[in-house]
Amino acid sequence: MGLNDMGNAPVKEVAQAAAVSVSGTESVAAKPKCKACCACPETKKARDQCIIERGEDHCGDLIEAHKKCMRSQGFNV
């Protein structure tokens, strides 16, 4: 067993732990059933209109609502 072999063991353990964490969150959100451009049209329209009229800085609540909707559809945003 060389030095490289010993150094890789903790990395593998960390990678496995990360994979467990990621797979745990993926089970909550299903795989997207449509393209991102087609998901959540209601919140997307409201968000876009607000940004056009008022600017991004004034539309945080609508931006977050759209992100929440996208996550519920299985997108990682």
TrEMBL record:
Its main location: cytoplasm. GO terms for cellular component: mitochondrial intermembrane space. One of its GO terms (molecular function) is copper ion binding. One of its GO terms (biological process) is mitochondrial respiratory chain complex IV assembly. Cu cation binds at residues 37-38. InterPro entries: Cys_alpha_HP_mot_SF, Cyt_c_oxidase_Cu-chaperone. The keyword Acetylation applies. It holds the Pfam family COX17. It is found in: Cytoplasm; Mitochondrion intermembrane space. The keyword Acetylation applies. It comes from the Eukaryota. Keywords: Acetylation, Chaperone, Copper, Cytoplasm, Disulfide bond, Metal-binding, Mitochondrion. Copper metallochaperone essential for the assembly of the mitochondrial respiratory chain complex IV (CIV), also known as cytochrome c oxidase. Binds two copper ions and delivers them to the metallochaperone SCO1 which transports the copper ions to the Cu(A) site on the cytochrome c oxidase subunit II (MT-CO2/COX2). Belongs to the COX17 family. Interacts with COA1. Interacts with the chaperone CHCHD4; this is important for correct folding and the formation of disulfide bonds that stabilize the structure. This is Cytochrome c oxidase copper chaperone. It comes from Glossina morsitans morsitans (Savannah tsetse fly).
